[in-house]
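Retry 2 of 3 after timeout on previous attempt. Resubmitting structure tokens to design endpoint.
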């Protein structure tokens, strides 16, 4: 970029990206002061506009310094430079008011965990914000969950109704203060307030007394519901088995693992084996729930995570969490470690509670005490969940929400805006804007009206906050999904349907910026196939650029007696697979499910014989169910994938364990003989081989078979890129070993980098499909 001849030069920069709500304008101000630059910075619909005057060589260095010294959470995606002629001179450098307008190219910041400086203030007895549960600064605090619209100014957030006091105003306008232009800035004098109520809504205490009552309630083994950052949490003492069991019963969550919050990294390390990468994630700006192996000597109650050797841990990420722990630790004896169960404030499969009245209505039968405040939450957002794996750069994400959303995923194609409406389970939605795909926070399973209402709110909020209207809707093939029905009700936009597993493969391809054809392994529970059967163990050809796709192969078909009931009762699938091998009754060894389901087993035998009420599937998830049931691990599930979780957890970690016999793959490679694999499992079981050994042999055999099958088809097609997706890829053994095995065979595995491999990624695949469809006029 050359310098214009006429001084004083005026440099105009338009910067797009995540540059609002992350302390970017104060950062620009301080940099300008450091360089001796005059001018101004302001938010505009196009992005952050900087006007700078000064020494020409300093101005040339200005953009480089901007990019090199960005605040931690900021991100620049575009930087447009121009020189302005005859601009009036500036006398100093100032932050100007935002310019309103339609449309924008800025990114909204996710919510940021409380920074160390604010934590220190909360713990400092002499500080005005001592124990104040809404402390924040430019470097931390609520962002997405309190933002109604852009630009990110206080008037556009739920802090608009809290005018700053004189001291907060001084901090806000002081360039040397870390609260310089911090939009959620507040203190006990002018900020949100807190109070406690009984389950019937009767106000009990305010302020410090309410916080003390909450800590006392927890210390006595009771259940607290409190308003957090993206919704309500339910909490109880993690080391009190009775409190944990009471929470499970009231919340109707009998077996699914519960996450814990602990006050610091040392406590987390006392409870679980943490790698350096784990520690970085726990203490970083996101503070997700991190899954890690339990320490056997930690003394964790069995009912926290009964089916797995891992535990979900997170550190306090809001001032309110920090205050509660500070008050709680004073009340706990030496035999009670400071750890709290911290789970979403909902019951059953409902969405997380958002407002005070809603929480009192929905959680009164669960909580013994409510801790409420008057800062509105505008966007529901659960905690994110992830796991780090050896040899993998990016973590394995299980749930993408707080701390990640609404960060976009960069996609290869820049095209018209489209809306991916997502699946039925693990629902998210995805709205594209240019070459960015905005995947929503985790919404949940669309099985009830409350979640469906949340789904519709999320759809509207994304469009409002991005100021983008889609030109097409993309939905799943399944006609009975609520997301599909929603699409049918929208009369003004074209609707396109995409097969479930193709969407999986397009999603993982998009995350890896891959536009070349791939072989896709889609391994999950079930998704409606184009032949109207239930797919789930598929080898697909997918071309992201041309949108050509076809099914190249699949697992051995099996019958699900009773359809959906077989998902709830895995033993039905096990008996079905035995029946397919000509085993009609228990021989040599009694089937584990006959103790409880003897009469039902006879009926299932008749159903299979007559093929009555039996659904055909090629599902990988159902194969895991069948093996788990045969080994006596799980006959009826209490939460999704419970049978598979128990099967994975059961396996021995002996590296010398041999895998089960290789598959018999038919000549055209179209069927992976998983029936043969199950037969080997059955043979081991009949011989009395230990379940943990069988589980290990099954996992290793499945991985070897998938790799060999994929290699054979790769040699036929010449395709080397292998895209891996589907909920089964959340199995840590597969997630670690299958990509490594494919690499060993000279193939290039593509795995999810930003989204979960489960159905939460479906909306991205749909959106990419729709955008490509419209862009190329296909």
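Retry 2 succeeded. Sequence:
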């Amino acid at each position: 970029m050359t310098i214009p001849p006429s001084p004083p030069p005026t440099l105009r920069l338009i910067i797009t990206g995540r540059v609002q709500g992350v302390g970017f304008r104060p950062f620009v101000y301080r940099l300008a002061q450091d360089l001796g630059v005059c001018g101004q910075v302001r938010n505009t619909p196009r992005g952050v506009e900087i006007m700078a005057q000064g020494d020409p060589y300093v101005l040339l260095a200005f953009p480089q310094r901007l990019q090199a010294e960005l605040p931690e959470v900021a991100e620049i995606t575009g930087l447009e430079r121009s020189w302005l002629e005859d601009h009036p001179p500036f006398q100093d450098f100032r932050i100007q008011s935002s310019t309103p307008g339609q449309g924008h190219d800025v990114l909204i910041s996710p919510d940021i965990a409380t920074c160390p400086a604010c934590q220190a203030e909360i713990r400092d007895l002499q500080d005005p914000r001592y124990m104040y549960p809404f402390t924040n600064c430019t470097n931390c605090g609520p962002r997405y969950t309190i933002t109604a619209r852009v630009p990110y100014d206080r008037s556009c957030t739920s802090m608009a109704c809290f005018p700053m006091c004189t001291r907060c105003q001084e901090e806000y306008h002081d360039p040397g203060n870390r609260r310089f232009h911090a939009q959620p800035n507040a203190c006990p004098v002018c900020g949100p307030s807190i109070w406690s109520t009984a389950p019937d809504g009767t106000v009990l205490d305010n302020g410090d007394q309410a916080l003390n009552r909450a800590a006392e309630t927890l210390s006595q083994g009771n259940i607290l519901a409190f308003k957090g950052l993206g919704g309500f949490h339910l909490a109880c003492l993690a080391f009190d088995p009775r409190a944990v069991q009471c929470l499970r019963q009231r919340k109707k969550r009998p077996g699914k693992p519960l996450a814990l919050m602990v006050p610091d990294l040392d406590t987390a390390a006392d409870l679980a084996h943490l790698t350096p990468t784990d520690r970085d994630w726990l203490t970083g700006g996101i503070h997700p729930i991190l899954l890690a192996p339990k320490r056997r000597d930690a003394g964790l109650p069995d009912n926290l995570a009964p089916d797995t050797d891992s535990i979900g841990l997170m550190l306090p990420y809001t001032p309110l969490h920090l205050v509660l722990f500070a008050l709680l630790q004073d009340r706990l004896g030496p035999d009670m470690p400071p750890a709290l169960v911290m789970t979403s404030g909902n019951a059953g499969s409902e969405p997380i509670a958002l407002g005070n009245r809603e929480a009192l209505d929905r959680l009164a039968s669960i909580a013994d005490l409510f801790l409420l405040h008057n800062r509105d939450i505008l966007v529901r957002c659960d905690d994110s969940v992830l796991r780090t794996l050896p040899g993998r750069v990016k973590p394995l994400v299980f749930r993408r929400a707080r701390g990640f959303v609404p960060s976009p995923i960069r996609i290869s194609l820049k095209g018209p805006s489209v809306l991916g409406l997502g699946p039925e389970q693990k629902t998210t939605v995805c709205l594209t804007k240019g070459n960015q795909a905005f995947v929503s926070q985790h919404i949940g399973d669309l099985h009830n009206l409350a979640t469906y209402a949340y789904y519709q709110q999320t759809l509207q909020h994304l469009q409002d906050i991005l100021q983008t209207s889609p030109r097409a809707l993309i939905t799943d093939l399944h006609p009975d999904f609520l997301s599909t029905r929603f699409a049918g009700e929208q009369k003004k936009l074209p609707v396109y349907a995409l097969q479930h597993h193709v969407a999986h493969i397009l999603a993982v391809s998009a995350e890896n910026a891959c536009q070349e054809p791939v072989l896709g392994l889609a391994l999950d529970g079930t998704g409606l196939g184009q032949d109207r059967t239930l797919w789930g163990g598929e080898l697909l050809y997918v071309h992201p650029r041309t949108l050509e796709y076809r099914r190249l192969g699949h697992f051995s078909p099996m019958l699900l007696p009773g359809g959906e009931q077989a998902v709830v009762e895995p033993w039905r699938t096990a008996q079905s697979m035995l029946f397919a091998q000509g085993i009609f009754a228990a021989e040599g060894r009694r089937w584990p499910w006959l103790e409880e389901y003897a009469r039902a087993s006879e009926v299932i035998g008749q159903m299979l014989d007559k093929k009555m009420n039996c659904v055909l599937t090629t599902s990988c998830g159902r194969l895991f169910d069948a093996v788990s049931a045969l080994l006596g691990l799980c006959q009826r599930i209490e939460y999704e994938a419970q049978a598979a979780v128990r099967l994975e957890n059961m396996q021995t970690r002996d590296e010398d364990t041999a895998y089960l016999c290789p598959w018999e793959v038919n000549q055209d490679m179209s069927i992976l003989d998983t029936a043969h694999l199950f037969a080997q499992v059955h043979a081991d079981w009949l011989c009395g081989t230990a379940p943990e050994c069988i589980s290990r042999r099954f996992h290793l055999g499945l991985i070897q078979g998938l790799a060999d099958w994929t290699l054979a088809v790769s040699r036929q097609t010449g395709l080397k890129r292998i895209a891996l997706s589907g909920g089964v890829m959340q199995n840590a053994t597969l997630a670690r070993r299958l990509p490594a095995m494919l690499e060993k065979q000279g193939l290039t595995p593509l795995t999810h980098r930003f989204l979960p491999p489960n159905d939460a990624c479906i909306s991205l695949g749909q959106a990419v499909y729709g955008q490509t469809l419209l862009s190329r006029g296909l």
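Attempt log closed. DSSP finds 22 helices and 30 strands in the chain.
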